[in-house]
Amino acid sequence: MSPRIHLPSGWVTFVFTDIEGSTRLAQLLGPGYRPVLREHRRLLRDTLAATDGAELLTEGDSFFLAFADATAALTACLTAQRALTSHDWPTPEAAPRVRMGLHTGYAEPRDGEYASPEVHRAARVAAAAHGGQVLCSGSTAQHADPLPAGASLVDLGLHRLRGFDDRERLFQLVAPGLARAFPRPRTADAVAHNLPTQVTSFVGREAERAELARLVDEHRLVTVLGAGGAGKTRLAVELASGIVESHPDGVWFVDIAAVTDPGLVAFEIAAVLGLRPEPGRRMVDTLVEYAAGRRMLVLLDTCDAQPAASAEVISRLLAGGRGVRVLATSRESFGLPGEVVWRIPPLSVDPGPDGVESDAVALLLDRTVAARGGRAPDPTEQADLRRVVRRLDGVPLAIELAAARLRVLSAGQLAERLDDMLGTLDAGRAAPEPPVEQGWAGNQQDTVDLVAAAAGTPPPSAASRAVLRSASERHLTMQATVTWSYRTLGARSARLLRWLAVFAGPVDLPTVQWLLDEDPLDPLSVLVDKSMVLADPHASGSTYRMLDPIRAYAARRLVEAGEEQQARNRHVAWSRHALDRAHLGPDGRPVTLSLYALDPLAGELRAALRWCATGGSARSGLLLAGGLDQWWRERGLAREGRLWLFRLYGRLAETGEEVPEAELAAAYHMHSLHAGADGEFGEELRYSQRAEAAARQAGDLGLLARVLAGRAAPLVDMGQFAEAERVCREVIDWARQQDVTPDALLAIYNLAELLWRRGALAEAADLLGAARPVEAARPVERGRRSVDMLLGMVALARGDLVAAHEHLLVALRSRMSHGYLGRACDTLNAIAVRCALGGDPVTAARLFGAAQATRANLRATPGLYGPYWLARQAELRRVLGDAAFDTAYGEGGELALAEAAALALGVEHPDLALDSPRFTTPTPITPAPPAAPLSRPHHA
């Protein structure tokens, strides 16, 4: 440096510049590098040194200058960058990218140089910059007043400069003609990560976090799969924030949703890592070289936006260095070697074993408190909050949106409105248009433009920018979230998704094939891979299900596509087919009906009934309801059965659909039995009469016998026992004459009960003995073993404990095996009487308590036997005393039905020794007052 150059003193602004990637540029250009370097020096001297700056050092591609004025220093840098950008270089790849850094500090020159730490700080500021970027320290920003015309400084926050213990606030010079978007500054931050800061608390998922942490520790590539809104990103970020210290070279979050072109995936990752494109070199190669010797975790979010490109970059990263690990979130897996796919489950909706609320309820409570201004939900809303999270299938985004609705609705109101799930959750949440020139969207677009230019590709189109905006808006509504995946589906997969919406629950592969009438494996695989359908493997084969928010979306699409009528009618046909199969064995022949076979079908049949009652065939609905005839009553759902029938009658009146009289008779007969079980005796009699009229009109003698066999039920319910007995005898005699005795089996059961009630035990036993082969020949009745139950009651009345024991245990075992839960309660009560008569009052009290608890859960009435059970319980109370009876009765009430049945079946067989109490004097049966209505007969 010439001694004639005046070096400023006092508050001096130091400027350092150099060419980013100069070594790579020299290799690329070869002999052509020297002219580029000379031209670069000329431009900088013309713009920097030509100002008031003092050039202290020029070495290779670097400049070091000192300015007495901070504004002049920034103006010189701005002018230099514009000159470099506008210059006509030999090729675009030959254009040098110069980084510049400024710092202002108090310094005095000595012997033609500065020996001050402020110089080193300025050098570190320059080292933090990227090519084409001008960074300055907070001190320079403070002294630069005014700023160059049209320029501004953007605060980049506090950063730790290499070699300095304190943090320096860095600013970026922004002005027309300068690039705006750059990667994060190259600084030595103590916490090496860029994980997004969460503004809401993380709730639950303890088990999931532990499992995912173990997988990330043991495997280099872990992909978190899940549907939109399942909480993949939030869980991954939460996990990553806890393992930053385990990765010395950082944990880096990259959102692939913002990438509009597959070729820009590597650029997006590189930008987060602080890397810039190198002339003549693929970005992925630069990325791999950087990562090769480092131990770091890269969290790639929303990889389903660019699955193929993400997979390629991940594969290269993992192959390039052993210290790199990748945690990815996506709606579909990559299929890469070594990839561990972990599917995120919905939040648990069931309370923990210690009574702690489920994670789903805990999240809803937390967000509801925030939505209501810090006011917690009323304790009376707890049950409705549980209903809400169950309807939402524990989907976190759906729960977050539901909490927002609780600003204006009670939990009960929200639960009632979830039949229109999308409309309710998305109400009032129209996606806003994000700003284009400022804030997040503007920065993202600048970044995309910059990396596109560096890659030699044109900037994204308006359509691509719309995709970019949708990436940020996709979680504003459930509709937008699912649309994000739906738009990637092919025609067959999209159709299958829409049609699967007609199912209420999981389905197996044959069912899906039935629905489409073609092999569904290919489109189904796509839906599973994209996490729009969940596959649950079992030993007998996988089942497939959709979360309720996705089902609601698919159902809306089904209507929009004009396919609802066809798809739902197909579902109704499948439901009827499934009901038929429940009555048949593998060989296609009738088998003993098990109500357990109907339990898994209940949700599907309700969905089919809903369609039949609103847009489909009421006749098909009546047939479906008839297939559940006994199930409604045995599960304590007689009232629900009646309501469905009323809806179907209304649909018939609306459409005028023709229904054969025989089918109407069967429906009215079923309705009568439901009404009796529900205590609606007038309705019971009215529909019994309608059933008889329709059956006579149909001319089907067997059907008429079945209808007439139930005519005693309303009479018993109204306390007209003698009249009921007369009707039963008439029906039985008529059925014998018409050779349809098996169809009058219900009348035989009812008559046997009435005979037992008035003590005609021998006639009852003879009647039942003759009915045994009839019952055994009828698959829909033999599982109930009503003959054995009634013979057991006769034996109890006679005091024959051996016969009672044997008959009742046979009846209980069969009823439990075939799912007749309401009838099993009657048998438990009968075995309780047998225990009381056999000298085991404590077991008797427990069984009474268990039977009553189950009957209460089923909302079932005790029927004809009610007074008898009460009389025996009163006698037990006298024997045991109030305290002991209540204790044993309460213990029984805590037992599940299966546990109570096991207790009853374990009762020891009566001793047949000479001194055994086989024959005892039974307590007389106390008949109910004739005028007191009880309920429908036990065997309805």
Helix content: 40-55%
User: Based on CA inertia axes, which overall geometry fits?
Assistant: elongated
Strand proportion, as a percent range, falls in 5-15%
* Average pLDDT reading: 82
* Rg (CA only): 40 Å
Low-confidence parts, pLDDT < 50 over ≥5 residues?
431-472, 923-938
CATH superfamily of the domain at 10-174: Nucleotide cyclase, GGDEF domain
Q: Calculate the terminal CA-CA distance, rounded to whole Å.
A: 112 Å
Q: CATH topology of the domain at 10-174, what is it called?
A: Alpha-Beta Plaits
Number of strands: 15
Description of the structure:
By secondary structure, this protein is an alpha/beta fold. 54% of the residues lie in helices and 9% in strands. Among the domains are: 10-174, Alpha-Beta Plaits (2-Layer Sandwich); 206-343, Rossmann fold; 359-425, no CATH class; 660-759, Tetratricopeptide repeat domain (Serine Threonine Protein Phosphatase 5, Tetratricopeptide repeat, Alpha Horseshoe); 775-905, Serine Threonine Protein Phosphatase 5, Tetratricopeptide repeat (Alpha Horseshoe), CATH 1.25.40. Strand 14 and strand 15 form a beta hairpin. Helix 12 packs parallel to helix 14. The relative contact order is 0.04. The model is unreliable at 431-472 and 923-938 (pLDDT under 50).
Structure characteristics:
15 strands, five-stranded parallel sheet, elongated, Rossmann fold, Alpha-Beta Plaits, 42 helices, disordered C terminus, seven-stranded mixed sheet, alpha/beta, 940 residues
Outline:
The chain is an alpha/beta fold. It is built from 42 helices and 15 strands.
